[in-house]
Amino acid sequence: MRLCDITLRDFRNYECQQIAFDPGVNLIVGDNAQGKTNLLEAICYLGSGKSFRAQKTGEMVRFGADFADIEGSVFSQERLQTLRWVLFSGSRPRQLWKNGVKKKTAADISGVMSTVLFCPEDLMVLKSGASARRRLGDHALCQLRPNYDAALTEYNRILEIKSKILKDHFENPAVLEILPEYNTRLCQVGALLISYRARFYEGLGKEAARYHQQFSGGAEEFVLDYKTVSTVADPFAPVDTLVAALQEHLESHYRAELETAQCLTGPHKDDFSVSLSGIDLKAYGSQGQTRTAAISLKLAQRELMKRESGEEPVLLLDDVLSELDPGRQDFVLNQIVSGQVFITCCEPGRFTKLGKTIEIEKGNVK
Ligand code: ATP
Ligand code: MG
């Protein structure tokens, strides 16, 4: 799959801009704060309906404008297709079209254009907090499995209501009457999430181990370990078994949840760890090992998505190459011989000969 062109209206610092892209490497060059990451955000959003940086949809609408419009033509599934999103600055729900036909949710455009984003923070993802790792996994899984995306959305919605119940019960004990209903649903949907994650992380770990082995000259054995709620003995178990395990954990934390007014139990606390030849990376890994392992994970994610859909996802490298030493840069570049890639950087330096260069200045192509 490849993005042929994009048209942005009132998106971030872009007022009105149409940009055509190369089917191979697109080098997006410009000084700081000119709109390079904004362009990658638009590309990512076009395909997934998700932003990797905005907390609220309205943030993506240009200051002072009422709505933003992102439109692009994509060559995938053996034909030219169009995607279009309109995002509003207020509370009005966003709108979506595929090939000119209005659609309801992001799941309706699944598979048209998948993206894999790689940014400098990802290089340290194995050292940082669990939420960064969950985000990485969720972003990939949501694109791979629309049903996972729907389950995750529902889980988060129930979790929000439960948090409110836990906060309100001191003032208004009657709200506790509806808590069991939400707890039950949380366990049911939570079990689904665990089931999807177990399979995804198994595949991701195997693929990343292959990359890491090439990268480290076969010296290190990369093992990814998915960690979920402690009462889940086997995350591959049937969903009913997972539901029972989640309920057991929930019951043992019932009092603690009421006392702390926090949702202490469930897969919203999931994590994964990586060890290299048996040594835990988070605790003991060097900076170089951590970066190499993170690159292996990202390349693995791209490979999994390619295998699933039969098409190469669009790779977005935000400032990441310039963060790497030449050896690692070459490894990454050698792995992306095929497919479409967007690379942002301030100083093109040694990358200029790669493909099309697009210079951005204050939300305009120079
Ligand atoms: P760097 O090299 O520092 O990463 P960049 O080119 O990637 O820079 P972006 O993050 O794409 O920069 O763009 C940042 C600019 O976009 C900032 O100047 C910011 O004020 C502006 N911006 C962000 N959101 C909006 C918005 N909703 N409306 C108008 N401008 C915005
Ligand atoms: Mg940037």
Describe the structure using short key phrases.
binds magnesium ion, six-stranded mixed beta sheet, six-stranded antiparallel beta sheet, binds adenosine-5'-triphosphate, alpha/beta, about 375 residues, Glutathione S-transferase Yfyf (Class Pi), Chain A, domain 2
Blueprint of the fold:
Elements: E1 2-11, E2 14-20, E3 25-29, H1 36-48, E4 67-76, E5 79-88, E6 95-98, E7 101-103, E8 115-118, H2 120-123, H3 130-144, H4 146-168, H5 179-215, E9 222-227, H6 239-252, H7 254-260, E10 271-276, E11 279-280, H8 281-284, H9 287-309, E12 314-318, H10 326-335, E13 341-345, E14 356-361, E15 364-365
Helix pairs in contact: 3-4, 4-5, 5-6, 5-9
This protein binds adenosine-5'-triphosphate (ATP) and magnesium ion (MG).
Magnesium ion (MG) binds next to helix 1.
Question: Can you walk through the features of this model?
Answer:
With 366 residues, the protein is of the alpha/beta class. It has a domain at 124-306: RecF/RecN/SMC, N-terminal domain (Glutathione S-transferase Yfyf (Class Pi), Chain A, domain 2), CATH 1.20.1050.90. It has ten helices and 15 strands. The protein has helices spanning 36-48, 120-123, 130-144, 146-168, 179-215, 239-252, 254-260, 281-284, 287-309, 326-335; strands at 2-11, 14-20, 25-29, 67-76, 79-88, 95-98, 101-103, 115-118, 222-227, 271-276, 279-280, 314-318, 341-345, 356-361, 364-365. Strand 1 and strand 2 (14-20) form a beta hairpin. Helix 4 packs across helix 5 (179-215) and helix 5 crosses helix 6 (239-252). It is globular, with a radius of gyration of 22 Å. The chain starts with a strand and ends with a strand. The relative contact order is 0.17. The model has no long low-confidence stretch (mean pLDDT 94). Bound molecules: adenosine-5'-triphosphate and magnesium ion.
